[in-house]
């Protein structure tokens, strides 16, 4: 009797297959998290290097060859730093806020297809799930601002809640055109629908939607020119002013994780996902990676060149320009879909 038969003899029928399936899923989760977290660590390094070169500076260059070990040095520094908690803070909410932010981002990765046939959970409402998790992440920011018992944090939290609610609408509406064209909320199906399209990507027919999506993604991730919630020249660091050590690092990781998730979403919904001009053997995610890097570079470029909006300009842009533009895109897409 081999080991498989012994296992089936001891346990009910089918339990072996279920165990193997669970182990495979756990392995997939570990691989995805390891790959994304490595990208988060080095996204900070390449941002500092890129902006350094744009501003005629060297950027990190002391730790390791050309500063390549700087993310590891930063992690060690934050890990051993004292965790200071304000005396009058609401401690349970203060503790849980950064965890909500980072877990909302990590759970989004579960439905992301990274290449043909590979997604941890290939669900039919993947796009809706990503939008829901994106909204949930804002609770961590608002809760941290309220629980810190600091006027800077509180103002940062208030700004973030108003900003995220405003731009979440524009972000969701910008993706409706993609849903109409693909006829599905499943992210893998959306990529497959783009394969059948003449341009192999929705970015050309959906250029209005793509523009609204990218601007809203900048605001959703609190990046320049929409970094009002953590405007360091006005609010010190905004909602996480009172955080230090590893809790501060969790907010930092959540912000860069949000950038990577929005970049993957943009690549999947508008740029044809993992499809490219030619196939790369043994690296099925090659073209998705290239597109995500291009999105990330745009984040850096905009931070280095565009000044911060005033708060009234930020809200006006969202409600008076982006939402009407996204609605116009839906009307045009739906009309063309009916006529063609």
Question: Please, could you describe this protein's structure?
Answer:
Helix 2 (15-54) runs parallel beside helix 11 and helix 6 packs parallel to helix 12 (311-339). This protein has 340 residues and is an all-alpha fold. The longest helix is centred in the first third of the chain and has 40 residues, at 15-54. The termini are far apart. It is 69% helix and 0% strand. The relative contact order is 0.13. The chain is globular. The chain has twelve helices and no strands. The mean pLDDT is 87.
What would the keywords be for this entry?
single chain, 340 residues, mainly alpha, 12 helices
Order of helices and strands: HHHHHHHHHHHH
- Overall strand count: 0
| Poorly predicted segments | none
Helix content: 55-70%
Q: What is the overall number of helices?
A: 12
The N- to C-terminal Cα distance equals 63 Å
**By helix and strand content, what is the structural category?**
mainly alpha
Query: Which shape, going by the Cα principal axes?
Result: globular
Quaternary organisation of the protein chains: single chain
Overall mean pLDDT: 87
Radius of gyration: 22 Å
Share in β-strands: under 5%
Instruction: Report the sheet with the most strands, covering strand number, pairing sense and barrel closure.
Output: none
């Amino acid at each position: 009797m081999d080991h498989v038969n012994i296992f089936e003899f001891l346990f009910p029928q089918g339990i072996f297959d279920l165990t193997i399936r669970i182990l495979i899923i756990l392995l997939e989760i570990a691989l995805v998290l390891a790959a994304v977290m490595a990208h988060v660590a080095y996204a900070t390094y390449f941002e500092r290097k890129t902006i350094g070169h744009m501003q005629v500076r060297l950027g990190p260059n002391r730790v390791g060859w050309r500063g390549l070990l700087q993310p590891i040095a930063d992690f060690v520094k934050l890990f051993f730093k004292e965790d200071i908690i304000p005396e009058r803070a609401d401690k349970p909410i203060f503790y849980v806020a950064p965890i909500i932010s980072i877990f909302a981002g990590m759970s989004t990765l579960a439905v992301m297809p990274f290449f043909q046939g590979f997604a941890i959970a290939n669900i039919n409402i993947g796009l809706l799930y990503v939008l829901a998790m994106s909204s949930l992440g804002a609770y961590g920011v608002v809760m941290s601002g309220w629980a810190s018992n600091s006027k800077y944090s509180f103002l940062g939290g208030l700004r973030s809640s108003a900003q995220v609610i405003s731009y979440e609408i524009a972000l969701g509406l910008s993706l409706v055109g993609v849903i109409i064209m693909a006829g599905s909320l499943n992210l893998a199906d959306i990529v497959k629908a783009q394969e059948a399209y003449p341009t192999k990507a929705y970015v050309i027919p959906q250029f209005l939607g793509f523009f609204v999506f990218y601007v809203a993604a900048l605001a959703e991730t609190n990046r320049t020119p929409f970094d009002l919630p953590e405007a360091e020249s006005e609010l010190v660091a905004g909602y996480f002013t009172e955080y230090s050590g590893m809790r501060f690092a969790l907010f930092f990781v959540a912000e860069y994780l949000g950038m990577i998730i929005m970049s993957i979403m943009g690549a999947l919904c508008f740029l044809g996902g993992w499809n490219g001009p030619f196939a790369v053997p043994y690296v099925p995610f090659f073209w998705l990676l290239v597109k995500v890097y291009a999105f990330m570079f745009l984040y850096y470029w905009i931070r280095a060149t565009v000044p911060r909006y005033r708060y009234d300009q930020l809200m006006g842009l969202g409600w008076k320009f982006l939402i009407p533009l996204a609605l116009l895109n839906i009307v045009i897409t739906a009309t063309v879909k009916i006529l063609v």
